Amino acid sequence: MTTVAQHLILTCHEDSVDLARAELAAAAPDAAVLLDLAPGVLLADAHQPFDQVAQAWAVNPPIFVRHICPVHAAQPLAGDARDLERLPASLLPEDAPAAWFAAFDPTLTFSVQSRLLAPTAYKPFDINRAVAERVAGQTGASVDVRAPQQIVSLVVAQLPATLLRHLDDPTAPIPARQSHPLLCALAGLSLPAQNLSDWAGGMHRFAREPEQVSRAEFKLLEAFAVFGIDLPPRGRALDLGASPGGWTRVLRQRGQYVTAVDPGDLDPRLTSDSGIRHMRMTAEAYLRADPDRYDLIVNDMRMDGRDSARLMVAYAPALYRHGHVIMTLKLPEQGRRPVLDQALALLRQAYVVAGARQLFHNRSEITLWLRPLSSA
Ligand SMILES: C[S@@+](CC[C@H](N)C(=O)[O-])C[C@H]1O[C@@H](n2cnc3c(N)ncnc32)[C@H](O)[C@@H]1O
To answer: What are the helix (H) ranges across the chain?
Structure first.
């Protein structure tokens, strides 16, 4: 068993690797990506302690990096049921305390979060349980899977044997010659806030409900969870680009009266709800019709990010000073960063950008949380 201090695993949307790498370079200028473990999952040597990278992102959060976790220990695996006994024992030996585990606080709850990026005979749940039982047995700490206060991350992946040696001794240069791949577990201990998400790899999953109108609902649910936005009881919400009505349904579930603007239809299950007013027109037309004022404006319109930003600036007077905006900003395949920067500059004419993240449920877009400038 060995400990290393500076390695981390970074996860982002697989189409945003270049943007996530740029964010890593801004936070840790000497960082080097050592290996793509899977699409959108990178093993990097930060050349500075994990805590320092996490601290930089606590102050200035990244948009495209969805999750990070430290690599404090690396352990070869067999890939079969033997790992379920051997891995907990080798990560946390009975006789000598593992140095990487010294920061574990037994008075705090914990959870083990595993990702299997290579084929194994077991499932993440099996390895989570095996390691969690060992941790609880050794420390007396309680498991809390929903809201853990500290997280043991495990990533199981194929690594060139030479790279595994480099993880053992980070001062050793990485040999240029590739070597045969070895299955191994990369383990680390951190706080949920340091990881940028409470979920393994930032993969924030929601149960599918039979009444669900669209997959887009997950985006709004994730935005509420990640940004921690509270809505006033019986508030008034404006849903721009509402069809077929997934976001409108989520807002109704949260007790909001919804004005749903879209030239397209709403799902028939929504049309008899007297708490929904469907304005069958474009957002531009509704703006010209002297809109009411709202506690919340959401916008999931399929539209160029800059055009959408301009429209949101024009809608600012329709938002109460205490109000919030949640919007998706569509980004082109090429030249995403300039489009994003232009859209953010436009939005800052009327809003404070309180949050900007490419969420797990976003595709070629990011999600923004805005507050009116006048509320600051
Ligand atoms: C991704 S869908 C929205 C899905 C919706 N959030 C849901 O949960 O069901 C995008 C919508 O934007 C609408 N849209 C595009 N341009 C618009 C405009 N200028 N004004 C209003 N709606 C627009 C489209 O008609 C389409 O229904």
So the answer is: 17-27, 50-59, 82-91, 124-139, 161-168, 217-227, 246-253, 268-271, 283-288, 305-315, 336-347
